[in-house]
């Protein structure tokens, strides 16, 4: 490299198939200096970082892992457009570093030949060279380097010495290197490329010249070209030229869909097989094969998967609990300290009940998110996740979902927030979206306090058929109800969103590996941080609004409620009554009363109405709100439980009980279905990168909840229950 | 006489005769070309997807994908 270019900061793109150890290399090169976000307008994650070599800081873009640059899928399009310098949200890379899996060179080289066509300076890394050697796969680096005409380096991405070699190769790289050798299209394909380039790409598009051959090849092999030019003014011209090129090929006895791919693989086989045509193919059964024989077994496979899911479920449900309690305690303490230190007033209230409580409401999710991603990182890192998807796909496609939907959906039983974050392991966008949209129907742990209260108060503690507890049965029924609704919703949505030509399932089962612990912990903290940073601010903002609604306007509590007492217990009750009075007259209270006519047909009164507003912060807040409202008008010594108060509550006009078993069931049905959780909406916003999907989710789930509760309550009354 | 890969039981290596249909382009890119050797390793519970070995790696295919592949 010339001295002038020596210290110039470069933009380097990491390119490679999924499962090639590209992320490991990215982490090793950048250390902790990386940024994660979304590409604008799409849901593909963008990772960038930097590496310092010989005093110069270079930027590294970790492009999405893809098998091809044929840009049928959005991640392929981003990788392709970035490499040709046509992606408006990304810098044009000066150098491409290709990461190939040495144990699977043929298919990995396919992408390499496509990148070479783009005439971008490149370095080829043959990763997992240790594994290839172990399996007796012969990789002749010299032959490959000679044939490709670019630097080729066998590496193990985990090895520090090898990383040093990669850094050196980047530093030494000649940006003015001659074009890579690569494959050359033969006749009649070359002629077809020239035809499309000269008659279409050159005169009618703005593509840079170096992208012309690959674009021409894509048009030739694509049998649904018209999708590309839907809005192009010269659409007919393009279609005519492409059809002409395709028919030229057909006349010459070639299949336009296959001719390019076959030519590339022919070249690849010359590189990888030392020209003797018959390379490697390890025949002996590897350890991976032996594990697979058990883990993907027709009967054992599902059993093992269920056992693993139960363990994960246990972890996010109960191991996370002590941490959540600690977080809770910490924020309550912090709130108390601030409340006592600052003079009382609006600022004090805002800080304690708005901001500190809101922050606590964000941080409380971290234990569950981090435990879940600890397990997911291990499952992904070992290669088991793909097996789980393989085992479950047959069942899941029957209900409109994907094999990979199982883990996110199971997580949803603990909490929808980590579950929705876990949905990113589903590659296909439509499958991921449907999984996200139905996931909140899973009965999450925040619903339990509401279910428990209503069931203990209104479902008789009797046995059905002599041995099944009615209360237990109701609980179980609510879980099943959630699952059934999720399945129905998935099935309906499948009819609306498909990717057109559905993305193929085709999934690689990578060899089993030991998980890399630093990567597991890194991923765990990264997901936690993304949640705090991106969903946290939305949750904070809504918390403050909800706090405001429940605390303002400030009203004077009448003396009749506050001054009644001599004993301390009674004074405590008087305080409780005062907060009930304040809540009833707050904006939230007013809204609750205002919406009463709307929720009356479901069997709810204004008190429930207030609860529906406040529980948008989190479903379990319903119980606390009812507690506050029902603490009104208690005289000293009379400390009935909330359960008793609900049972005893009478309508002041008619004298009838406000709650019946039927209205309690109606309320539980509503809670099972309604989108009563701002944190879920915030994380859906993050994961879908738009407000559209959380809005749709809120509307359809709440509408469904309303209709089902209406049917339950009105139907029940008509039947005379 | 060729049959579809979707109808193939696990019995040894076969050679691909042709790859056609709507999923052909992607299958070809994954290295499943006419003349390539494939082996069906196993099928998932409920019959599909199937797991195949091709060019030394393992790939899973749903029924509609396996139906695009004719073997000799």
From TrEMBL, chain B:
<dbReference type="InterPro" id="IPR008988">
    <property type="entry name" value="Transcriptional_repressor_C"/>
</dbReference>
<dbReference type="InterPro" id="IPR038157">
    <property type="entry name" value="FeoA_core_dom"/>
</dbReference>
<dbReference type="Pfam" id="PF04023">
    <property type="entry name" value="FeoA"/>
</dbReference>
<keyword id="KW-0408">Iron</keyword>
<dbReference type="InterPro" id="IPR052713">
    <property type="entry name" value="FeoA"/>
</dbReference>
<feature type="domain" description="Ferrous iron transporter FeoA-like">
    <location>
        <begin position="3"/>
        <end position="72"/>
    </location>
</feature>
<protein>
    <submittedName>
        <fullName>Ferrous iron transport protein A</fullName>
    </submittedName>
</protein>
<dbReference type="InterPro" id="IPR007167">
    <property type="entry name" value="Fe-transptr_FeoA-like"/>
</dbReference>
């Amino acid at each position: 490299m010339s001295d002038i270019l020596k210290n110039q900061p470069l933009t380097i793109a990491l390119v490679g198939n999924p499962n090639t150890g590209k992320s490991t290399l990215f982490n090793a090169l950048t250390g902790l200096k990386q940024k994660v976000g979304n590409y604008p307008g799409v849901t593909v994650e963008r990772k960038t970082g930097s590496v310092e070599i010989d005093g110069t800081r270079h930027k590294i873009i970790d492009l999405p892992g893809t098998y091809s640059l044929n840009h049928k899928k959005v991640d392929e399009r981003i990788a392709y457009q970035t490499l040709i310098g046509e992606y408006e949200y990304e810098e044009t890379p000066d150098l491409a570093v290709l990461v190939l899996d040495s144990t699977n060179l043929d298919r990995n080289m396919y992408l390499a030949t496509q990148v070479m066509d783009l005439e971008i300076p490149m370095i080829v890394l043959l990763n997992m060279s240790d594994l290839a050697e172990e399996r007796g796969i012969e990789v002749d680096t010299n032959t490959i380097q000679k044939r490709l005409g670019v630097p080729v380096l066998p590496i193990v991405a985990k090895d520090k010495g090898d990383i040093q070699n990669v850094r050196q190769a980047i530093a030494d790289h000649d940006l003015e290197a001659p074009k890579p050798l690569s494959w050359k299209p033969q006749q009649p394909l070359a002629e077809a490329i020239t035809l499309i380039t000269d008659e279409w790409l050159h005169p009618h598009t703005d593509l840079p010249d170096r992208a012309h051959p690959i674009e021409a090849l894509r048009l030739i092999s694509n049998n649904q070209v018209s999708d590309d030019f839907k809005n192009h003014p010269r659409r007919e011209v393009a279609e005519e030229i492409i059809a002409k090129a395709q028919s030229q090929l057909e006349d010459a006895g070639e299949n336009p869909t296959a001719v390019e791919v076959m030519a590339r693989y022919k070249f690849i086989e010359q590189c990888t097989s030392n020209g003797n045509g018959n390379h490697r193919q390890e025949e002996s059964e590897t350890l991976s094969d032996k594990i697979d024989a058990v883990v993907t077994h027709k009967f054992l496979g599902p059993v093992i998967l269920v056992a693993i899911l139960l363990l994960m479920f246990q972890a996010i449900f109960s191991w996370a609990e002590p941490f959540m309690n600690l977080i809770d305690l910490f924020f309550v303490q912090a709130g108390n300290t601030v409340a006592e230190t600052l003079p009382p007033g609006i600022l004090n209230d805002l800080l304690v009940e708005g901001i500190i409580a809101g922050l606590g409401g964000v941080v409380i999710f971290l234990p569950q998110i981090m435990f879940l991603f600890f397990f997911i990182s291990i499952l992904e890192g070992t290669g088991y996740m793909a097996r789980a998807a393989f085992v479950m796909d047959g069942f899941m496609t029957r209900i409109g979902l994907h094999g990979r939907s199982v883990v996110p959906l199971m997580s949803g039983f603990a909490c929808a927030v980590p579950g929705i974050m876990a949905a990113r392991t589903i590659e296909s966008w439509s499958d991921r979206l449907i999984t996200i949209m139905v996931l909140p129907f899973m009965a999450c742990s925040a619903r339990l306090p509401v279910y428990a209260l209503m069931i203990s108060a209104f479902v008789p503690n009797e046995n059905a058929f002599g041995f099944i507890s009615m209360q237990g049965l109701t609980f179980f029924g609510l879980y099943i109800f959630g699952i059934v609704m999720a399945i129905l919703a998935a099935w309906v949505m499948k009819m609306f969103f498909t990717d057109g030509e559905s993305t193929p399932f085709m999934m690689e089962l990578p060899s089993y590996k030991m998980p890399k612990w630093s990567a597991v912990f890194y991923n765990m903290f990264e997901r936690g941080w993304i949640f705090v940073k991106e969903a946290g601010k939305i949750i904070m903002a809504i918390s403050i609004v909800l706090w405001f609604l429940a605390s303002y306007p400030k009203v004077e509590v009448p003396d009749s409620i506050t001054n009644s007492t001599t004993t301390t217990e009674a004074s405590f009750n008087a305080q409780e009554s005062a907060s009930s009075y304040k809540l009833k007259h707050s904006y939230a209270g007013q809204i609750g009363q205002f919406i009463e006519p709307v929720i009356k047909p479901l069997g709810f009164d204004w008190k429930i109405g207030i609860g529906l507003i406040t529980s948008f912060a989190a479903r379990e807040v319903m119980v606390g709100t009812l507690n506050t409202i029902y603490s009104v008008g208690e005289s000293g010594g009379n400390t009935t439980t909330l359960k008793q108060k609900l049972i005893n509550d009478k309508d002041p006009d008619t004298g009838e009980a406000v709650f019946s078993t039927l209205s309690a069931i109606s309320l539980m049905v509503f809670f099972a279905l309604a989108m009563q959780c701002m944190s879920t909406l915030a994380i859906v916003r993050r994961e879908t990168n738009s407000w559209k999907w959380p809005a749709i989710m809120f509307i359809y789930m709440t509408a469904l909840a309303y209709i089902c509760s209406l049917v339950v309550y009105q139907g029940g009354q008509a039947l005379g229950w | 006489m060729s049959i579809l890969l979707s109808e193939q039981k696990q019995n040894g290596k076969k050679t691909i005769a042709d790859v056609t249909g709507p999923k052909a382009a992607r299958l070809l890119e994954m290295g499943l070309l006419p003349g390539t050797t494939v082996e069906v390793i196993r099928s998932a519970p409920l019959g599909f997807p199937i797991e195949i070995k091709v060019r030394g790696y393992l790939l899973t295919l749903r029924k509609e994908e396996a139906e695009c592949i004719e073997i000799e």
